[in-house]
Specification:
Number of strands: 5
Radius of gyration: 17 Å
Distance between the termini: 39 Å
Order of helices and strands: EEEEE
Largest sheet: 5 strands, mixed
Number of domains: 1
Shape: extended
Length: 98
């Protein structure tokens, strides 16, 4: 890619039940992510309805970002990124082996 370094990272927002946490639908929490290298970056995000320590590979995702967000990280500057977390859809796939 002509010397352009691409960074991929995923920030998981572990959100407990609304009764125990301040983040609820309709709010806009801000999360600082420090120490990121300059260059091109892509942000994705998923949330879960259980405490961090309870998240397993099979834990249902409660909210997702519809599409990855591209960010140009510049040394010494803060890139402001706004995302919308939506409920995920479901799919059932039937495959016929011919």
């Amino acid at each position: 890619m002509g010397g352009v370094k691409q960074q991929w990272f995923s920030r998981r927002l572990f959100i407990p039940s609304p009764a125990r946490h301040r983040y609820q639908p309709g709010t806009s929490p801000t999360i600082a992510m420090d120490g990121l290298a300059p260059g091109a970056a892509t942000l994705t995000s998923r949330t879960f309805g259980v405490a961090c320590a309870q998240v397993q590979a099979t834990t249902p995702i409660t909210r997702i970002v519809g599409a990855p967000v591209s960010v140009a990280m510049v040394a010494g500057q803060t890139a402001n990124v706004a995302i919308v977390l939506r409920r995920p859809g479901n799919m059932q796939v039937t495959a016929t082996l011919a």
